[in-house]
Design brief:
The chain is an alpha/beta fold and 251 residues long. The chain has two domains: 57 residues, Winged helix-like DNA-binding domain superfamily/Winged helix DNA-binding domain (Arc Repressor Mutant, subunit A, Orthogonal Bundle), CATH 1.10.10; 185 residues, Rossmann fold. Helices cover 37% and strands 24% of the residues. It is built from ten helices and 15 strands. The strands form four sheets. The protein has a seven-stranded parallel sheet. Strands 1-3-2 form a three-stranded antiparallel sheet. Helix 7 links the parallel strand 5 and strand 6. The protein starts with a helix and ends with a strand.
């Protein structure tokens, strides 16, 4: 069998089963695990899967540039954002992450809401300018242009003084065993730091992010208490999350 044919079969198996294991692929093709791992490395370098210990997971499409991501799954993002916005009660302090779903979230907040929003996203902060009763706290730092958020030591230091009721986390990957992940190392540190400053972390996850992984781990799946998904999400994707003790909210 040609290498290209084998790689095609690996990707088909990954698409149908949600993960592949190097040992099983080795047995399936009658080849050494070293050969299979080389195939997985090459597919990873082409952006076609995400290698993890022992095998590979589907790669998240949510690592594309902000403008491109903004066009993806727009209806699902609006529904998820609407459900998230409804969770913020008057008088609460909520941390809102960067990202396209978060930018949609602030559009869904009623103008009459009296609350405090903490964010490291200039886009989220500007989106709240016309909300007269929402106090906006913008965390400073180095601007990471891919996601339009601030990162770095200054941002982490500023977060250490915050105690929030809710943190709405944006991710690029949600997987029951690989956990929560994102496409940038500094963003992973920031998201973990923000989760530590909130009583409840709520992950905003459109279907493309479920059962997928990116290069940098934010933390175990249990870092989140709740995950908001679109209403039509396959139960097979939701069940492992619920079994891990996560509350899944269908938007």
């Amino acid at each position: 069998m040609l290498t290209s044919q084998r790689k095609k079969l690996i990707l088909e198996k990954l698409a149908s089963e949600g993960q592949v294991l190097a040992k099983q692929l080795s047995e399936m093709f009658g080849l050494s695990e070293d050969t299979i791992r080389r195939d997985l490395r090459e597919l990873d370098s082409e952006g076609l899967l995400q290698r993890v210990h022992g095998g590979a997971l589907p790669v998240s499409p949510a690592i594309a540039p902000f403008a491109e991501r903004n066009k993806q799954e727009s209806g699902a993002k609006r529904a998820i954002a609407r459900a998230a916005a409804a969770m913020i009660l008057p008088g609460q302090v909520a941390i809102v992450d960067g990202g396209t779903t978060s930018a949609e979230l602030v559009k869904q907040l009623p103008l009459s809401l009296q609350a405090t929003i903490v964010t490291h996203s200039p886009s989220v902060a500007v989106g709240l300018v016309d909300h007269p009763q929402i106090e906006v706290i913008l965390i400073g730092g180095r601007l990471f242009k891919h996601s339009i958020v601030t990162v770095g030591a200054a941002a982490v230091e500023a977060m250490s003084h915050i105690r929030a009721d809710l943190y709405f986390m944006g991710v690029t990957g949600v997987h029951p065993t690989a956990g929560l992940s994102t496409g940038d190392l500094e963003e992973a540190y920031i998201k973990r730091a923000l989760a530590a400053r909130a009583a409840e972390t709520v992950v905003l996850a459109s279907a493309a992010k479920l059962n997928a992984a990116s290069q940098y781990a934010i933390g175990d799946i249990t870092l989140a208490q709740s995950i908001i998904v679109e209403r039509a999400t396959d139960e097979a994707l939701i069940s492992p999350l619920q079994q891990a003790g996560i509350s899944v909210i269908k938007a």
